[in-house]
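Researcher: I'm preparing a figure for a lab meeting and need a structural model of a single chain. I don't have an experimental structure, so a prediction will have to do for now. The sequence is pasted below. Please return the structure as tokens so I can convert it later.
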Amino acid sequence: IRLADRVSTVSATYAEEICRPSDTSTGFIGGEGLERLLAEARDGGRLVGILNGCEYDRPKARRPGWMRLLAMLEAQLHDWQQRDPDNEAHMLARQRISAFPKRRPLHLLTSIGRLVAQKASLLLLDAEKGASPLQALSETLGRSSVIVILGSGEPLFEKRMLEVAHRCPNVLFLNGYSELLSDPLYAAGDLFLMPSSFEPCGISQMLAMRNGNPCLAHATGGLNDTISHLKTGFLFGGGSYQEKITQLQQVFDEAFDLFRKEPKTWEQIRNRARKQRFTWRKSVDAYYRDLYGIS
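Model: Understood. Here is the structure written out token by token.
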């Protein structure tokens, strides 16, 4: 960092965040001890933040029907159970799918990502006590709606997610990762949950938006740079953990009310999200210009 002519990271907001010290009491991850050097690089014009890109030249994903989506989820769970027959999460998920109504739920929320502290803390805080934000969202939605979580990761967070799924009959926890399921879930959802504690750039929000699936996300890093509140999605902030969780729930309520009461406005947000373009061409041009000084 001291000797480099340029230092790059993957979003403008994250480039600012890493110039501040981390604060584990609030979940803020900054420079992790390198903040002074990074701030010197920033002040000297040597630190740049350039967003990653997303592919847009592929055929548009069709929104799958509810029964087709359930059949795909069931098939993947069958494969996972063949390899891991004692996995409690797989057994619960298959039971849950069998119990779901055959009509599409009133609202379908989706989330895809690694179950680690960075991605899941704000959803699963105090899950073992039965008071997690995810459970609160589930109760707000009610049984006529469904939340589908696809992810695996640290055993602690897998355990917490399973505890929430046991308590909430409208939460479907798919404990694994599957390329075959991700595209249909990005396309099928009404709202994508991405409350990462920190996020250098993020790709899931771009993939969801590409499919017209607005995101509810923490206003940090690349999420802050790719989502515009009430225009292409929904952002929450806050200083302490409690402030973030309170704002997460408040913004969710705002989005939920908008979905129910102002369908035209919701459709406009969906369309604006779908039309966003974070292309690799833009990223490449920025690398030439900002990193290498080539116009």
